[in-house]
Amino acid sequence: MQESAFLLGQVFNGVSVASLFVLAALGLALSFGLMRVINMAHGEMLMLGGYLAYMTLSVVPGPLGILVALPVAFLGAALLGAVLEFAVIHRLSARPLDTLLATWGVSLVLQQAARNLFGAIGVQVIAPTWLNHTVTLHSGPFSGLDLPFTRLFILLVAAIVLGAIALLLNKTRLGLYVRAVNQDRPVAAAMGVNARLVDLLVFSLGTGVAGLAGVILALLGPVTPTVGQSYIVPAFLVVILGGLGSLVGTTIASLIIGLFTALIEIFVDVSVAQVLLLVFVIVFIQFRPQGVITVRSRALEG
Amino acid sequence: MALKHIGLAAALLASTMLGTVPARADGTVKVGVLQSLSGTMAISEVPLEDAELLAISQLNAKGGVLGKQIVPVEEDGASDPSTFAQKATKLLQEDKVVTVFGGWTSSSRKAMLPVFQRLHGLLWYPVQFEGNECSPNIMYSGAQPNQQALPALTWAEQKGYKKIFLIGSDYVYPRTANLILKKHIAHDGLTLSGEEYVPLGGTDFSSIVAEIQKAGPDIIINTLNGDSNVSFFKQMAAAGLTPDKLPVMSFSIAEPEAKAMGPSLLAGSYTSWNYYQSLPGQTNADFVAAYKAKYGADSVVDDPMVHGYVDVEEWAAAVTKAGTFDPKAVRNAAVALGFEDSPLGSVKFAPNLSMVQTGYIGELQPDGQFKIIWTSPGPITPQPYDALTFPGKSCVAHTAF
Fold first, then answer.
1. In a domain? residue B389
2. B335 phi and psi, to 5 degrees?
3. What ipTM does the predicted assembly reach?
4. Residue B163 pairs with which residues in a beta bridge?
5. Mean pLDDT across the stretch B375-394?
């Protein structure tokens, strides 16, 4: 493999990791931006997506099972998100510390539930064979570069989800309401926007996207009761780095983190790369505490 | 008046208790079983404890040891080293157990070591580890590096693999095992084509897969632990590097892990252990049958579990030989026992308190069992300190606690 191909391969890996982070962090960013809720149970929505994929594949085996699993996981996680919002979060609104504790408790409950239902060891989602191909470039400056289908598929899913949410927020009536509530909740409510319903829908949308991310993760790793825990920290990093509540910021921050990790791993091993990533985020926040993109919002100015 | 009666009743009660305890102690003897029943290690340690308890119940069914029934006192180490130390103290001081079977992680063993040395206890440790330790209070039955890691390297050399890539989780065992492997790779004139570590529980292997593709090794020696293995093998497969294209030799995947991860993902990859469920021999067949009868027909057994089982048997044999439960006498008798038949084959304890045992290489089959494709030429004498890596250090016969 040529040096240039290896370097480009790492850029591709970075973008691929970034696409995972986008899916994992989008829901967090949306619900924080709108409701100032830090959902500690967000990682468990990823886990739920993984288990839903596992169950879907046992009902619908075959090459297209994974395509069925995506909407199933989205709806399942969105439904649980709606229940969570209705039963817990909405009742603790404007009490950020309490929501933090309550959602953390929910996260523990969900982990234990998964352990009791599916066992502590975890389950396996086997990627369909059509995802097990690799495109290899044979000529040109990047000859030898491998592009696994799985990674391309993940990129595609992330791009579709991002595009769909951007359209939803910018081109639909609901998106208008969301932006209105985001900018000034009391005034939007006074204009007749049902802020309560907007909260519920946005929160469910966020958890639904996390469910999708869970299906994607299942293609790359194990589905265990604690799988969400390994992604919740990077997801929070993305949200902090991106600027709270911004779609563009979340995407850029995911790319920064993904590329930073992939490129630094050329020189150091993964453990050191994680340390350097945290140092980088801390330094970045020192100079730009508002994150990559600043969202002007009365809600955030408090 | 009433007060006097209460005092009398209390005295009576106390005398009854005093009367019952020695009577019970005449017919029984307590041993400690200290594994993690909760926390992240419970997945591995609960089946190990099951195997230890199976051995104890089999001994009791045969009339116990020195005419006494063995009562296991079970404690939960909770996957936490300081809990292990605290529970070990409790077992030795309050329960007055005559010996303890337990531990899995090196950090749990390191935490318990000073307790056993201070209280003159004897710990039977059943898991393969990085060596570099030599305590007179611990019977190390799991493999030393020269009984698992080095046989794997010898096998790889015999197969003609020259370029070796090391990958592991970032903690003491993989770091030390790879330190030793690197010395031997250099010494044997092989090439180290890369060395990578990921944090415990790490899930992203995209960069490492790219490094592996770039380096083009003949074989990967894998010391990843737990779920990271699933991510690693999945992402290797996604990049087209299935075990049949690029061989992988793993040190912490045994039968239960293979079953949990899905044999289809791992089929064709290699492991190195001192025991496989598929080993021939009547003793092993009896053990597997007894385990399945007690814990379910679809349960599987692996190397650490069998070591836990054999530890209990060796302890009983040593107690019988010594004629006493005294830990020091039992330890010396265990070394003096010589080769005993076991599910592992013929094993014995060396004067350095580690187990003399045979090394095997297994290839994972689609049914989740391993086919044994290589056997060391005879049982391997354990070396806690690798001569190339730690010259001048050695572990000699212990005479005192």
1. no
2. -70, -35
3. 0.77
4. B191
5. 92
Dist. CA A77–CA B328, nearest whole Å? 59
Per-residue pLDDT, B356: 97
| Mean pLDDT, rounded, for A28-37 | 85
Q: What are A's interface residues with B at a Cβ cutoff of 8 A? A: 1, 6, 9-10, 13, 16-17, 120-122, 124, 126-127, 131-134, 146, 148-151, 217, 219-222, 224, 227, 230-231, 261-262, 265-266, 269-271, 273-274
Confidence (pLDDT) at A57: 92
Across the interface, which of B197, B227, B235 has its CB nearest the CB of A224?
B227
Q: Which residues lie closer than 8 Å to B266 by C-beta, 6 or more apart?
A: B233, B243, B253, B258, B364
Question: How many A/B residue pairs have CB atoms within 8 Å?
Answer: 105
**Contacts for A187 with CB less than 8 Å, ≥ 6 apart:** A180
Q: Nearest CB to B210: which of A6, A121, A149?
A: A6
Q: What are phi and psi of B93, to 5 degrees?
A: -85, -45
- Sequence spans of domains, chain A: 18-136+148-301
Q: Are residues B351 and B320 in the same domain?
A: yes
pLDDT on residue B221: 97
Contact flag A270-B202 (C-beta cutoff 8 Å): yes
pLDDT over 80 (residue A278): yes
Please give the average per-residue pLDDT across B108-120, as a whole number.
Answer: 95
Last residue of a domain, one of B273, B303, B325: B273
Boundaries of domain holding B248: 146-273
Domain presence at residue B386: no
pLDDT, position A1? 54
Note whether A148 contacts B213, CB cutoff 8 Å: no
Query: Do B156 and B22 sit in the same domain of this protein?
Result: no
Is residue B228 within 8 Å of residue B171, measured between CB atoms? no
Structure tokens belonging to residue A137:
């470039």
In a shared domain, residues B266 and B154: yes
- For residue A127, which residues of chain B lie inside 8 Å, CB to CB? 234, 237-238
B300 within domain boundaries = yes
Q: Using a CB-CB distance cutoff of 8 angstroms, which residues of chain A are in contact with residue B202?
A: 230, 270
**Residue at which a domain ends, from B356, B378, B393:** B356
For residue range B240-249, list pLDDT tens digits in order.
899 999 999 9
Q: What residue has token string 């510390």?
A: A97
User: Does B11 lie in the same domain as B102?
Assistant: yes
* 8 A C-beta contact, residue A157 and residue A23: yes
Same domain for B174 and B129:
no
Same domain, B164 and B259: yes
**Claim to verify: residue B268 and residue B160 sit in the same structural domain:** yes
CB spacing of A220 vs B196 below 8 angstroms: no
Which residues, 6+ apart, have CB-to-CB distance to B83 below 8 Å? B76, B77
Residues B121 and B234 in one domain: no
Q: What's the CATH number where B183 sits?
A: 3.40.50.2300
What's the CA gap between A221 and B307, in Å, rounded?
A: 30
> Of B261, B274, B257, B282, whose CA–CA distance to B344 is shortest?
B274
Which of A6, A124, A219 lies nearest to residue B262, judging by beta carbons?
A124
The pLDDT score that the predictor gives to residue A166 is 92
pLDDT digits (tens, 9 = 90+) for B159-205: 999 999 999 998 889 999 999 999 999 999 999 999 999 988 888 89
Let me know: does B271 contact B304? Beta carbons within 8 Å. no
Contact A122 B230 (CB under 8 A): yes
Distance CA A59, CA A57 (A): 5
Average pLDDT over every residue of A33-50? 91
Work out the number of other CB atoms within 10 angstroms of the CB of residue A262: 24
Written as one string, the DSSP assignment of A47-83 is HHHHHHHHHHHHHS-STTHHHHHHHHHHHHHHHHHHH
